[in-house]
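**User:** Once you have settled down, spend some time on the protein underneath, comparing sequence with structure tokens, and judge whether sequence predicts the tokens.
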Amino acid sequence: MKFFVALLWALPFFAAGQVLPPAAPNPAPPVVAADSSAGWELRLDYEARTSYLGREYGSHAYSLNPQVSYSAANGLYGRLEGLYFSPVRPGYVYTSLELGYAGEFTDNWSYSLSGSRTFYAGRITKKDSVLRNNLEAYTQYALGPVALGLDYNFLFDHFQAHTLGLNLSVPLEKGHWLGFDKVSFTPAAELDWGSSLALLRFGTLATPLDQNFAKIDQPSLRLVPLAYEFSFPLEVQRGPLALNLAGHLLAPLRVRGETQAPPAFGYLSAALILRLPAK
């Protein structure tokens, strides 16, 4: 475990000197109180296409996202993750460290607060359009079979931006089925808002349309709708090991400075997860 964490932390320094790529991962979901019992989680995510706020980075470019996280019984948690992005050589882009707290207002209403810092493999200067720091507040309310989530992110570095995501999901779960300890299916729909510079979070933008938007609206922190996303994750678990397979459909919305919205696109993702209770 210690070796895995040390290797993830050190990779950016081994890859130092590479050009900053136009990469942006699909962010890891916020931790909620139900997930915060004491334990470790090791996870490897694969995304067949890489996107952020409904905008695709690269052309059908895949990404790998290794993660290790620890949740304490009192709700405190930490997560260390990295990103490998296929168009870049040698490929490793950054390591991100997140620290936070997950709790509950009531049995049906949970929340989490966290802060994260991104450490890029390449040297970052003032002229690089990246936002390395993020403060996040997330809340989720379960209303019968439906869960409603609200996710706010304040991004800052040499400039500032923020995003807001409204998520509606239907968690479905069946225990001891088809030889698995647990099978879950959680279809979800999300609407994302963001200020224009939020699209610059991970550096160079994917399309000239996005660059146009950022240039026109640069001084503004006004939130505008950016994209709809629909996801259909299926997860099976047996013992400490779980496999998550999901389909995603993204529909970017036209914003100021764009003559038309970027085209909608879909992709598949997979995650291999190992959950270990703390000793």
